[in-house]
Amino acid sequence: MSTAMQPETAARPDEPRNPPVAESRSLSTWLERHRSGLLGFAGIVVVLVIWQVSTGTGLADPSFSSNPLRIAKAEADLFRTGEIYPYLKASGLEMLWGLLIIIIAGIPIGLIRGRSRVLHDLTEPWVNILYSTPYVIVIPILIFWSGIGNTSRIVVIVWAGILPLVINVTTGVRNLDRDYIRVATVFCTPRLTFLRSVALPATLPYILAGVRLAIGRALVGAIVAELFLGNNGLGYYVQNSTTNSNIDGAMAGVVIIAVVALLLNWGVRLIERRFTHWAEAQ
């Protein structure tokens, strides 16, 4: 008895195999990769929805708390009329000069301080005192010394931001791998060459973490300085809007400050992922 063979159906070369499975895996991979960002975005949306519903149902008075829709309208008006641009420019220039001074001075100070035990012990009490002392308390002294101009505001920004960077870089240098130090010692590496070619690359994760902390504290310092010392800038705009009972405009200014902070931190995180991925693998 012969058994009939069932012919196998050949798959067409242009016919995709299991497309739903491939798409599902691709989607799950994308969701897993962006899980943190999506959850953060969802958290922001939930808070905004609760805020809007609270003002819409009368649980909160929008005259005192505003709401997301009114803030969005105020944001659009600020950028449409150009009213916010001078304040953004003033704060941006102060932050630019302050961060340049912080980075240019803070990294070398941290490297040298981390390599010299004598210098570290001599400066440790002063670093702790200056880091623990609120910089707001010296603002009256700065006004007495240099008035309420840009110089005083930049001094406050530098004071607020440079110490976290110095402390982080110092910690990174003091925790260097002993093998690096032994190899440099064997080859009689000059001190400056060691700092530039060994200590600086090895402490890059500490440096970028310090830069992130410095940016946050410097932005706070800039806003505080504008509240007390300025007649321009985002901090002054928020204070002036609150004084004039323009709560929507004040909250719009706060949102702009928050967005600037997020963008700055996002930029530093991108640099960390690009240049310090080797540290995560260790």
Output the number of helix runs: 14
Helix content: over 70%
Structural class category: mainly alpha
Bulk shape: flat
What is the name of the CATH class of the domain at 85-233? Mainly Alpha
Major beta-sheet overview: none
Instruction: Give the strand tally.
Output: 0
What is the terminal-to-terminal distance? 68 Å
Strand content: under 5%
Low-confidence stretches: 1-11
Mean pLDDT: 82
CATH architecture of the domain at 85-233: Orthogonal Bundle
What is the fold named in CATH at topology level of the domain at 85-233? MetI-like fold
Question: What do these coordinates show?
Answer:
Mean pLDDT is 82; it is low at 1-11. By secondary structure, the protein is mainly alpha-helical. The chain has helices at residues 19-33, 35-56, 62-65, 68-81, 85-115, 117-132, 139-146, 150-174, 178-186, 191-202, 204-229, 234-243, 247-275, 277-281. The protein starts with 18 loop residues before the first helix and ends with a helix. The chain has a domain at 85-233: MetI-like fold, CATH 1.10.3720.10. 80% of the residues lie in helices and 0% in strands. The longest helix has 31 residues, at 85-115. Belongs to the binding-protein-dependent transport system permease family. The chain crosses the membrane at residues 36-54, 95-114, 126-148, 154-173, 249-268.
